[in-house]
Design goal:
heterodimer, A: 218 residues, alpha/beta, Arc Repressor Mutant, subunit A, B: alpha/beta, Ubiquitin-like (UB roll), 26 strands
Amino acid sequence: MSGSAENIGDGSTATHNRVDPEHFAFTADSEAEIVKILAKYPAGREASAVLPLLYIVQEQMRHDTGSAWVPRIAMDFVAHRLEMPPIRVYEVATFYLMFNTSPVGRYHLQICTTTPCWLRGSDAVVAACRRVTGIKGWHETSADGLFTMSEVECLGACVNAPILQVDNDYYEDMDASSTSRLLEALKRGEAPPQPGSMIGRLTSAPEGGPMTLTAAER
Amino acid sequence: MVKLRIDDTDVEVEAGSSVLQACEKAGREIPHFCYHERLSVAGNCRMCLVEIEKAPKPIASCAYPVAEGMVVRTDTQVVRQARRGVMEFLLINHPLDCPICDQGGQCDLQDQSYAYGMDHSRYAENKRAVKDKYLGPLVKTVMTRCIQCTRCIRFATEIAGVPELGATARGENMEVGTYVEHALTSELSGNMIDICPVGALTNKPGAFVARPWELKHTESVDALDAVGTPIRVDVRGLEVLQILPGVNDEINDEWLGDKSRFSVDGLKRRRLDRPWVRQDGKLRPASWQEAFNAIAARLGGVPAARIGAVAGDLCDGESMMALKDLMAAFGSSNLDCRQDGAKLDASRRDFYLFNSTIAGLDVADAILLVGTNPRREAPILNARIRKRWLATSGRLPIGIIGSATDLTYKAENLGANAGLLASLGERAPDFFSRMQDAERPMVVVGQSALARDDGNSVLADAWDLAKTIGALQDEWHGFNVLHTAASRVCALDLGFMPGPGAIDFDAMVDGGVDLLWLLGADEFDTRRIGPHTFVVYQGHHGDKGAARADVVLPGAAYTEKDGTYVNMEGRVQHGYRALFAPGEAREDWRIIRAFSSVAGRPLPYDDIDGVRARMAAVNPVLGRTGLQRFGCSDLSGPCPQLGREHATDSQIGELVADYYLTNPISRASPTMAECSRIAPAALAQPALPIAAE
C-alpha cells in the first residue's frame, strides 16, 4: 500500500507519497459537532478549537473511508474554517502522534513498548501482531489493508500492562494468545472482544479480585 | 526602572526588560541563537544561560524578566559549563560542513563554538539528516544545518506577515519548512538569510561564490525604491556580489526588500560600457568624442524650446543638477522627472514628501492609503505599517482607497474611486470619524492616484481631507506622498520640472521636442517618441531608452558613483562608489560636464564638491545630509491655480504591476525574472489569514 513506509505522525516525510483525496467537506454530523465545540471558545479565539476539529476530521475519515487519518486537504479546510494560517494546522497535526497524517489500515494497532509494558511481555504482543498481520516493520500496513502497526510510548495504563490500543480502545493484560484471538476475530470481521483487561481484572484491581482488607491472613 | 547587578556592574533598565538585555546594557556579551531583538522571544536555543542568585539552576536570560535587586552572573564555572553543554547538544546533529558552507565566516554557530565548543565529539551515533526545502528562487536551504531556532518562522509570521513557515512534527523529527512545498510569497524573504544564525538559509543566487572576508564593503543607499534604505555593497574585484541591509531605525530597522537585495546580478548584465551612435538606422560603437560631436552637431540647429530632458527613476542628484544646468545653458527649461505622469506640486516641499516620516508610522493612530500598494511599492514601509498595526493589537484603523489587497495587515477597503477623497465624510462616515478622532492620522497618497488626468485634484483633495481631519498640526504633518522612484524627491527639490512656459514629459515624448535627453529614463513606451526626435540616452543598461536612442552615453549604476539621493521623507543621503563602472562608462554628472565643454558651454564645476555646492545653492535642503522634520505651519493646499475641481469618481488603477521588474537593473537580473515568473502562481494562492501574532 502506498504510504506504508511512512513515519506515522511525522508530517515531514509524508508529503511525497501521500494520496490526498480530491475533496473534503464535513458531514452534517461533523458540522453539528463543530458547532458545539466552537461554542466553547470566545469570538476571535476559534483557533483554540483546532485539536477537536482535527479529531472530528479523523473520526469522519474513519467512518467514511475506513481509514482514520487527516488528509492535508482537510487540514486546509480546518484552517479555513478557523481562520488560521494552514501552516499552524499542519504544525499541530504533525506534532501529535494521535493524528495520522497518512492513511492507516482499518484497525490501527498501537502497541506500547515502554518499560512497564516491555517488562510484562510486550515483545510477545508485538510478535503475535506481526505473525497474524504479516507486517514486518513499524508504521506499515498489512497487505489486506486491515491493520497498521505503530509503536507508541506509554499509554498510561501500566497497571494492566502490556497494552494494545486498537483505534480508540485499550486491550489490557495482553499476551500472545489473547492478541492472536483479538486480531483473528477482527480479521474475520467478527465483533471484537470487549475492551479492557483480557484476564478478567476489574479495572486496575489486583489479579484475582480485590484483596485490600479482605484477606487478613495474607 | 529596575536596578540590578550584573557581575560587578550595577545597571538600571526599564521594567519588563529581559535579563539578556540588561546584560548587554552592562556590556556583557551573552551568546544566543534564537533571541533576536526585533522578533518575539522564543527561548528555545538555551545558549543564553546565566546564573541568577537564589535560582537553583542556570536560567535562559532572553526569556527571564529583570527584577529589582537581582544579582546575575554571566561568567561563572556553572554558566560556562552549561553553555558548553548546550553547544554540544546543538552540534550533535549539525554537520561538519563548514568548509563548503556559505555561512562560513559569518556564522553565529561557528563563532560561538570557538568559545563554547569542544575540540572533539563524544557522539558516535548517526547524525540526523533533513531533506532540503524549496522556498523559492531566493532562499537556498540546507536543512540539516538547521538548529531550529525558529527565527525564520517568527520573521515570516511577525515581520513579513506571511505565516507560511512552521515547525512540523516534533522532537528528533521536527523540521522547519512550509510543509506543502511552495515559494515564499514575501517581498522580504531575503532577510531570513540574514537572521538565520547558521547556514540553513543562504543566498540562493549567490551560492558558492564568495567568502565574507574576500569582500570589500561600501556603505551606500538603495536606489531601487524611494525608501532610501541604507545598504552595504559587497564587492570583489569588479563585481558586486551581494547587497545587504544597513541598520537605520528610522528607515528600515534592519530589513531590505528582495528587489533591492537580489537585483545584483542585473548590475553586470546588459550593461552599456561604451558610447554608441546611430548610423544608417543602426547603433554602432563609437568613441566619446564621436558621440559628443554627434549630439553637438544635432544640437546646433535646434531652437531652445525644442530641446528637452527627462530624468529617470534611479538618477542621483548630481547628474540631474548637471543636466538641468546644461539645459539652462542652452536656454531650455523643458525638464521633467515624472515618467509616470504623476501630477505633483513642487512649489512647497511638504506637498510632495512623506511628511509624517517612516519612523512617524510608529506613532500614527489612523492611516488612509490612497492609490498605493505599499507592499509592492515600498515593502520596507509596508513592514513598518504592519509593525504599527501589531503594536496596536490590530486596532489601528487603516483605510484603502484603491485596489490594494493583501497588505499583511487588516485594512478597510473604502472603494477605488478617487472621488471618495472629497466626500469621505458622507460615503464612509465610520472611517472618517475614526480618522477625525485620531490624534496623529495619516493620509498617504500613492503615485497611481496622482498619475491620472485629474491627479492635481486628487492631490488637492487629499490635502483638504488631511486638513479636515486635523492631520496638519504644528507638531504632526499627516499629509504624505508615497513615491516609488528613488530620484523623484531629489528631482523635485532641484526643480527638475517644466519651467515657466515649458512643456512636460508627455508633451516632450509626444513630439514636442527635436532633441530629447533621457537620463536613465526607461519607464515609458518609447514608441511614443516621433521618428524625427533625436534621442540621447544616458544610462547604464541597454533597456528601452537605449534601444530607441540615436546616441547612447554609458553612465554608472548607483553602486558605481558617489551620489545624493533624497528618499520619500525628504531625507538627504549620500551613496558611495563601491566599484568603477564597466568599460568606458563614467559617472553621469561628469559625462554631462564633459559634453558641456564640447558643446562650448562649460558648466561651472569640475568636481563633485562643486556640483554639491551648486545643488545646495539651488535648494539649501540638499546642503546637508539627514532629515529635517517639520510640522505643518501653512495649511494652504497644493495646486491653488486650479479651479478646485474635485477628483472625479473613477477607479484608481495600480501602478506597480510587477514588484520585481520596476527598473532597468532588475529587468536585467535573471533572479528577478525568475521571481517574476513564479509570482503569479504565488498570488493565485488563497490569501493567508493575517497573522496577528
